[in-house]
Design goal:
Elements: H1 3-11, H2 14-48, E1 59-62, E2 76-78, H3 80-108, H4 120-139
Antiparallel strand pairs: 1-2
Helix pairs in contact: 2-3
Amino acid sequence: MGIFQEFKTFAMRGNVIDLAVGVVIGGAFGKIVTSLVDQIIMPPIGALTGGVDFSEMKWVLKPADNSNPAHKVAEIAIQYGAFINTVIQFVIIAFAIFMVVKAINKLNRPEAAAPAAVPADVVVLTEIRDLLKEQGAANK
């Protein structure tokens, strides 16, 4: 079997296809969550914090120097605001996935099994036992 045939067998396995679909859907889901955080959640938080835009928050280590056009120096900064946005996005994604998994588990949960019917011979034996107990109690 040639290398191409082995690769085709590997690539067409169900797990590989499922993984590819999951990655594509995950990427799209990530864009939705990014939009949710950036355009819906963060503006009210910014309004509550006095108009602070977390994505623009940074600690400048070395400011940009554009005084010499031949030798421009870019700003060096730690952008902790972007990190805050990313953490919020992670929490939202984790919660959304938790809710999806919880819903799937609820759908896949087996129905509560009805109590098994008691076989006829057990019912008859139980009745005989009860009658014998009654007779023994009456003879005392």
